From TrEMBL:
Residues 1-20, 441-461 are annotated as: Disordered. This is Putative transcriptional regulator, PucR family. Belongs to the CdaR family. Residues 57-206, 227-394 form the GAF domain. Pfam families: GAF, GAF_2, GGDEF_2, HTH_30. Gene3D superfamilies: 3.30.450.40, PucR C-terminal helix-turn-helix domain. Residues 441-455 have a biased composition (Basic and acidic residues). Residues 1-14 have a biased composition (Polar residues).
Length: 674
């Protein structure tokens, strides 16, 4: 009964209708706000998903993600850092508002700052207030971070658990990033990993496609037939595009120094030949002298594909051997460029030069950059080598045609010959001497043999030797007789030497002899030289070439037993010129030839010198005393030799009328034996 009575009493905990209605309205509003938040979150997630599927441009993907995050959290600054595994750095890839200008310029190591801590530990971190007081905080002056109190960093982790990057949010006032907001950011971080990877792959593919396109253009430039300087400027421009740098400088070895035989004893010199953008003010560049050790070091770095990067004006770079090497190879006088990457231009084993790429901003070049520049450098080196070979071939053909037409001496070609000579640096109004020079090494046989001796250089090695010898002789002649021109074929060098007005054949021969002896003594190179008479008119050159050819050919026969150089002027030939022709045109044998052959056979069999004795006796017109002195023998020994000669010979040696015929027969016999 009491219980029943108590049921009619008012309950202390019972709600009044007004309070129940108020509570229901509150809960309804709360649910409505939650529903709106979830709806907004879903809309933002749908926007993120739509963004991820709508573009493969990494920059656009990151920008839209930050816009969605900013709307969802109302933070003051939102940033995304991407991880570069090669550099082991977090690099700012996207930022909101006024901080967009710092994209790519700010980077940090793993563990550095709140963002770096989240990346290193692969865990989100939330600081509601006093973020600057946290010992893990790293101040970034560009962001003016002293005004930010709250910070939230979430790592972006790929499916394979590798680090992709970090999303970081910052707010000015103590900011309560709600659990729902933090979950939203974490969901976005998980959602965008694949999008970022796809965008990075796409950009990498686009970059490689752009590189391949540029490399294709580079190959077309190489085969375009442009002059070397024009081609190098075009190649430098393409290199700037491919390497994404601010300046490309192509330096080549100074060929004037390269032609010097003493190159190994002095520094080699690099000279700037092309730049992109093109610099008209060449005073900004200086020639670079480099020793062989530095070039070898640079080449070894290239062979190993090591990083050849230097912040040219950074003190820390000077502690690196590579930095020191590149600093010595830097032709720039200006300090406006902060980074340099370099590669040698090498064709086969020949060091042709160097290609340098500069950037205004400090940049860390990676191994892919180095490999790419080395590929470009190899292509440029091939282009340079091919261009030079074509130029040399064209020059050689031009000179060859000039010499051939000059030898013909046709009157209708005279004006053309003068113009071509002027183009080659030769003034045909000035008298010239035709000189033919045959080069042989000191260790080669004076007389050619049918086969190559065992251990002798191969034909290709000999050609390289003759080419070096030709360059040496050419340079020495040019130093003393500027304006000389040459045509070289194998080991034979044809030369036109300008003559001063007061020059004569004796003075010219003496100078050539001194040059030939100097080269023989210094380089063990034997020169056989034939000189013709001075050519005053174009019509004289045909005869001049014929005279030099005869002087060379007959002079070698006249000096066949002599060591050292053989320099013969056409006027020195005398009677030998006629005897030589007889010896090589008339193969009939007479009694005098038979007697000479008999004496020579006896000399070979008995190892005597009877034929030389007879030749000297006849040249001295039968003077016994003079002949004995020249042969360095006693008079009685000479008489005994003459008696032996007479016993072998059926012709009376006492008969003076036989002397001239005998003397000529001996000379012809010797010429035939050459």
């Amino acid at each position: 009964m009491s219980a029943k009575a108590n049921s009619h009493l008012p309950s202390e905990t019972a709600e009044t209708p007004e309070k129940s209605l108020e509570r229901l309205r509150y809960e309804n509003n709360k649910l409505q706000r939650l529903l709106e938040a979830r709806t907004q979150e879903n809309a933002l997630l749908n926007e993120v998903i739509s963004t991820v599927g709508s573009t493969l441009r990494l920059e656009e993907v990151l920008k839209r993600l930050l816009e969605a995050i900013n709307r969802a959290t109302s933070c003051d600054i939102a940033t995304i850092y991407l991880y570069d595994p090669e550099k082991d750095l977090l690099v700012l890839a996207s930022a909101t508002g006024q901080y967009e200008g710092y994209v790519g310029k700010i980077h940090m190591t793993l563990g550095e700052g709140i963002t770096g801590w989240a990346a290193l530990h692969r865990k989100p971190i939330f600081l509601k207030e006093a973020a600057l007081a946290d010992p893990r905080f790293h101040y970034i002056p560009e962001f003016q971070e002293e005004k930010f109190q709250s910070i939230f960093s979430v790592p972006i982790i790929a499916k394979d658990k590798s680090l992709t990057g970090v999303i970081t949010l910052q707010a000015v006032a103590p900011h309560e990033f709600s659990k729902q907001q933090r979950n939203f950011i974490s969901n976005i971080a998980a959602l965008v990993t694949g999008a970022i990877e796809n965008a990075q792959l796409y950009e990498s593919a686009q970059r490689k496609l752009s590189i391949l396109t540029s490399l294709s253009m580079l190959s077309q430039t190489i085969s375009s037939g442009l002059y070397l300087d024009d081609m190098l400027r075009t190649l430098a421009t393409l290199t700037v595009q491919i390497m994404e740098v601010d300046l490309c400088v192509i330096m080549l070895m100074d060929q004037a120094r390269e032609r010097d035989a003493d190159t190994s004893r002095q520094l080699r010199r690099l000279i700037v030949h092309a730049t992109a953008p093109n610099w008209n003010d060449q005073s900004q560049f200086q020639a670079v002298d480099v020793d062989p050790h530095t070039l070898d070091h640079l080449r070894s770095l290239s062979d190993k594909a090591d990083l050849q990067t230097m912040r040219t004006y950074s003190s820390e770079a000077q502690d690196l051997p590579e930095g020191e090497t590149l600093e010595r190879l830097n032709p720039l006088r200006t300090s406006q460029y902060k980074s340099l990457i370099s590669a040698p231009l090498i064709a086969g084993t020949e060091q042709l030069g160097l290609i340098n790429c500069y950037t205004y901003k400090a940049r860390r070049f990676n191994s892919e950059n180095q490999t790419l520049l080395t590929t470009i450098a190899n292509q440029v080196a091939i282009a340079i080598k091919n261009s030079r070979l074509v130029s040399q071939l064209a020059q050689k053909n031009l000179v060859k045609g000039f010499f051939e037409d000059l030898i013909q001496g046709l009157p209708e070609n005279e004006e053309s010959l003068r113009q071509r000579a002027h183009f080659l640096g030769c003034d045909l109004a000035q008298p010239h001497a035709v000189v033919r020079i045959e080069m042989t090494r000191g260790d080669e046989s004076t007389h050619p043999t049918s086969g190559r001796k065992e251990g002798a250089p191969s034909s290709s090695a000999l050609q390289n030797t003759y080419r070096s010898l030709g360059n040496l002789v050419r340079r020495r002649v040019q130093e003393s007789a500027p304006g000389s021109i040459f045509y070289e074929h194998e080991n034979l060098l044809n030369c036109l030497l300008p003559l001063p007005k007061d020059s004569d054949s004796l003075r010219l021969k003496t100078w050539i002899q001194e040059l030939a002896h100097h080269i023989y003594d210094e380089y063990d190179v034997r020169l056989a030289v034939g000189l013709g008479n001075a050519c005053q008119q174009i019509s004289d050159y045909r005869q001049g070439f014929a005279e030099a050819s005869e002087a060379l050919q007959m002079g070698q026969s006249m000096h066949s037993t002599a060591r050292g150089p053989a320099v013969t002027h056409f006027n020195d030939l005398g009677v030998y010129r006629y005897l030589y022709k007889i010896a090589h045109m008339d193969d009939l044998r007479d009694v005098y030839q038979e007697q000479v052959a008999k004496i020579d056979e006896y000399d070979k069999r008995k190892n005597t010198e009877l034929l030389t004795t007879l030749e000297m006796y006849l040249e001295n017109a039968g003077n016994l005393t003079k002949t004995a002195e020249q042969l360095y023998v006693h008079r009685n020994t000479l008489i005994q030799r003459l008696e032996r000669i007479q016993s072998l010979c059926s012709i009376d040696l006492q008969e003076r009328s036989n002397w001239l015929t005998f003397q000529v027969a001996i000379k012809i016999y010797r010429l035939r034996m050459e």
